[in-house]
Amino acid sequence: MASHAEVVHVHVHTAPTGFIRKYVFSVDHKVIGIQYYLLALFSVFLGMSLSLLMRIHLVWPALHLPFTPGGQMTPEQYLALLTMHGTIMVFMVLTTAPQSGFGNYFLPIQIGAEDMAFPVLNMLSFWTTFVSLLVMVAAFFVSGGAPIGGWTSYPPLSALGEIVGPGQGAGQTLWIVGLAIFCAASLLGAINFITTTIDLRCKGMTLMRMPLTVWAWLITAVLGLLAFGVLLAACALLLLDRSLGTSFFVPGGLVVTDQVITWHKGGSPILWQHLFWFFGHPEVYIAILPGMGVASHLLSTFSRKPIFGYRAMVYAMLSIGFLGFTVWGHHMFISGMSPYSAFAFSLLTMSIGVPSAIKTFNWLGTLWGGQIRFTTSMLFALGFVSLFVSGGLSGLFLAQPAIDLYLHDTYYVVAHFHLIMGVAAIFGIFAATYFWFPKMFGRFLNERIGKVHFWLTFIGVYSIFMPMHFLGIAGHPRRYADLTGVQYLNGLIPVQRFISIAAFITIGSQLLFLFNFLWSLWGGKKATEMNPWEATTLAWSIPSPPPFDNFAGHIPTVYRGPYEFAVPGARQDYVPQQLTPAEVATGEVSSGPTVKA
Amino acid sequence: MRKRKACKGSTPIAAAFAVVLVALTVITTYLFVAKTWWFPPAITDVGHEIDAQFMRTLWITGIIFILAQLGLAWVIFRYRGRGRDQRASHFEGNAGMEIAWTIATVTLFVGLGLYGQDAWAKVHYQEAGAGALQIEVTAQQFAWNFRYAGPDGKFGRIKPELVSASTGNPVGLDRTDPDGKDDIVSPIIGVPVSREVELVLRSQDVTHSFFVRELRLKQDAVPGMLIHIHFTANQIGDYEIACAELCGLGHYRMRSLLRVMSQVDYDQWLKETAANQ
Fold it and tell me: How many CB atoms sit inside 10 A of residue A314's CB?
């Protein structure tokens, strides 16, 4: 561990000139962060459009849609929408915005660094991610269309090519290649985050003085480093099975529509599941940990109180990160895997509920005794807590194999992962956006529109996903393109209809956010103050937007922890991290490191 | 410094948030209590045990859900900002409370998990008894076929190259094999009530999953594997079988029927089905 008497400087590049260097091939972590964010913003609207089409088809199947020439949506089109919805949302939104988007922008600033450790690598990571999105989306436009195997892409369905279904030819290949490219980009990003956090903290920024957002980004990066390699390997093996006649995942003796498959032998479909879920489970923690960091950060800031149990919060995130690697088998209780291993995976999964519960207690403890300020970002942070509780508790059912015997692959699972991962993480992204937008762009998002957006979304997502639990309890399997096959689904169609209507309204409400975002970029109220939220971390000691090297050449020194609110005897109810003891005592801020806005 | 009017006006928004959380809690609790959309009744003994474990879990998670959401509602309302001049309380944590609720949570969650292992053990650790009725289940895109060993009690050979749905041999049965001469293949599965049944699951092409709600039973049918599961149905009736693992475009319509009959009716059914081979 390097001591921090000697501050390590990243290579300080001169300010870029010209449009291409400034906004396209920029090595500035702030520009790259925004690029990732915009990629995620595009992807989330694409992902929502796909799910909207799915919801419309399920309950109004007779409707002719624009891309279904000559008739209704076919089952394979539905499954293609489903596959791409899941893939795009998990990878291009939930793995991108919270970590690569906000993490890239604010990690260096929050630790007092001028940029990431490897700025050029950072730029390459973004453009590689961009290419992976292009390759993915291209799957829609090739012969056969996008793949139909779900985002989990289980072989043999994903390995045997077009004989097992439309979209399983070129579409599936592009999907796998796009995903592999994404894995490579993520690995590069993870290396950058870890190196930056360990090596580039400014003087006084000990590990236990880092904002919880930084801890979250660090742990997420470690998870990414260890998990994405496995997915990359799995993708490679699957491509080999598809194109070079290997049989990692495909056994012999298969017959597809009366045709014997003679070119495979000895593989195991379950092997893919182990590899995929060994990645897949840490992946869901990659999706949620940054949101937890943001929630902690905002709950403290807008309760005007220190976070309750900072150390416990750090240990809880570390536990979640570690345990997250041991529970992958809970996706496989029904898979044909040894039932004895199910016992082990079950207990480990129940255990991972413990640090999550601790974090929830501590969030409530942070609010307790506070002076809560209901900014839009705080509303989303509060909503995050509620959604995390709801989504987390349903996991306790699925973690028990005897109960999973029934609930596996039903809408109960869809409800669970949307609440705990999809929606909670999205709320973390919204909270972060409303909070950091003024710093990033020098203008505020409109708070009034923001609050309407919050209420419609919060009530909307519960209206969509709470009823899904009951669909699952009634035995409604997931990934069904049509509700007229299995007869016992008839009684559940009214519930599906309610969900579709709720989805329509909720997705429509997101246009409010999009409008607010785009309009505020140029017409929002200007953020003339450096610290409008009266926050304590280093981002709020620099102008909005920050200069290209963040601190205008004056790296700060940190004198205290990140959540010094309501300190007894202090003149104000918050004490920023970078104020010297003298400045705190006299109330006079020296001309110091920051340039006046 | 800029005057912030958010604090004084925070009562309406705090109240609104609390009301929404209370409404969420009440509606959700009501739906779980009313059981408007719920499990169909279980028809096996182990199914009842699974239901009991579900209810145990529901009680515990339900209480936590109610306390947490209402707790959140309460702190939001109680500690709404009263003005910029008001200070929050300053405490950074409480080690005693951390330890206490960590121990409580571990005990509750792990305890609940251990309690539920009994039902799992009954389903999977114990094999079917020697006298169980063996039925082979073949899953394919997009149909189920069930094979009985016939009077000789032995299953005949299966050959992939003999599979032909169009000529009435969906599972690829080798009729030249003496053991296979009397095998019975049926698109629905009939079983006698209160008799232990052992299913041997296999798949011809991709991974499927055999799911019957009333049995509280689900098992993937994995290509390249023969997976044994067992059950004893104690109620006569027809129960729908659904596929529960995405298997292609026909996944949603890959259904069949489990018919639980009296011994007499079962024997009759089997005879009729054999006659139609």
Answer: 18
Q: Which amino acid is at A251?
A: P
Q: Say if B119 falls within a structural domain.
A: yes
**CB atoms B57 and A403 under 8 Å:** yes
Q: For residue A345, what is the nearest residue in chain B, using CA coordinates? A: B113
The residue segments making up the domain with residue B238 are: 131-275
Residue with tokens 């032909």: B164
Chain centroid to Cα B271, Å, comes to: 33
Residue pair A272/A152 in contact (Cβ under 8 Å)? The answer is no
**Domain count along chain B:** 2
Whether cis (ω within 30° of 0) applies to the bond prior to A545 is yes
Token pair for A549 = 């090297």
Joined together, the tokens standing for residue A365 give 């403890």
Q: Read off the tokens for A266.
A: 């000895």
Q: Please tell me whether residues B113 and B172 are part of one structural domain.
A: no
Quote ipTM for the complex.
0.95
Residue given tokens 């937890």 in the structure block: A292
Computed from CA positions of residues A59, A62, A67, A68, in that sequence, does the dihedral angle turn out positive or negative? Answer: positive
Q: 10-residue block means of pLDDT along chain A (597 residues)?
A: 48 77 92 98 97 95 77 92 98 97 98 97 98 98 96 97 94 98 98 98 98 98 98 98 96 94 96 98 98 98 97 98 97 96 96 96 97 98 98 97 97 98 97 98 98 98 98 98 96 97 98 98 96 97 96 95 95 95 84 42
- Do B151 and B251 lie in a common domain? yes
Residues B65 and B26 in one domain: yes
Q: Is residue B94 one of the residues assigned to a domain?
A: no
**Which domains are delineated in chain A?**
32-251+262-267 (1.20.210.10), 289-527 (1.20.210.10)
Residues in chain A: 597
- In the three-class reduction of DSSP (H, G, I as helix; E, B as strand; rest coil), residue A480 is classed as coil
User: For residue A258, what pLDDT is reported?
Assistant: 87
Partner-chain contact B2 A529, CB within 8 Å: yes
pLDDT in tens, B110-120: 999 999 999 99
Shared domain check, B154 and B20:
no
The enclosing domain of B142 has a CATH number of 2.60.40.420
Q: Do B207 and B231 lie in a common domain?
A: yes
d(CA A127, CA A27): 11
Interchain proximity B50–A305, CB inside 8 Å: no
Low-confidence ranges of chain B (pLDDT < 50): 1-7
Interface test with B, best of A372, A380, A526 (most B CBs within 10 A): A372
